[in-house]
Design goal:
This protein is of the alpha+beta class. The protein folds into two domains: 45 residues, N-terminal domain of TfIIb (Single Sheet), CATH 2.20.25.10; 93 residues, K homology (KH) domain (GMP Synthetase, Chain A, domain 3). Helices cover 31% and strands 27% of the residues. The protein contains three helices and six strands, in the order E-E-E-H-E-E-H-H-E. Strand 2 and strand 3 form a beta hairpin. Helix 1 packs across helix 2. This is Organic hydroperoxide resistance protein. InterPro entries: KH_dom-like_a/b, OHR, OsmC/Ohr_fam, OsmC/Ohrsf. Belongs to the OsmC/Ohr family. Pfam families: OsmC.
């Protein structure tokens, strides 16, 4: 195993209807099954939301790094990530992901190139490459 720069650790109790806590207690969340999945739709979050949140933040940081290298200003940028759970119990569940980026004032062609470059360096994107279909979308500027 390589030498880790940082290690995150979390423990789950009760699966999708329990809780998850990080080893440093900075994250301590109740979990609920969404109504769309046959659950009670309770107040807790779920693994898909946690995955989407982590990947969105990581991808946005990768995108900002690409922008710095290319000297493109992305001050008011935002990245939204949708994790789609597809399939079913009979065939098994899989993920499909849509990553949308808002890059106000950036030419759409340049913005798309930057998304593709960020997708090459983001650790989540690298870890899931070839396993999860990902669609990269530049959200057009509002005129």
């Amino acid at each position: 195993m390589s030498t880790a720069v940082y290690t995150a650790s979390a423990t789950s109790w009760g699966g999708r209807t329990g809780k998850v806590v990080t080893s440093d207690n900075k994250l301590d969340l109740d979990l609920s099954i969404p109504a769309e999945m046959g659950g009670d739709g309770g107040a807790g979050t779920n693994p898909e939301q946690l995955f989407a949140s982590g990947w969105a933040a990581c991808f946005h940081n990768a995108l900002k790094g690409v922008a710095r290298q290319r000297k493109v200003i992305v001050t008011d940028s935002a990245v939204s990530l949708e994790v789609h759970l597809v399939g079913g119990m009979a065939t098994g569940f899989d993920f499909e992901v849509t990553i949308e980026a808002q890059l106000p004032g950036v030419d759409p062609v340049v913005a798309q190139e930057m998304l593709e470059a960020a997708h090459q360096v983001c650790p989540y994107s690298r870890a899931t490459r070839g396993n999860i279909p990902v669609t990269l979308v530049v959200v057009p500027d509002e005129d």
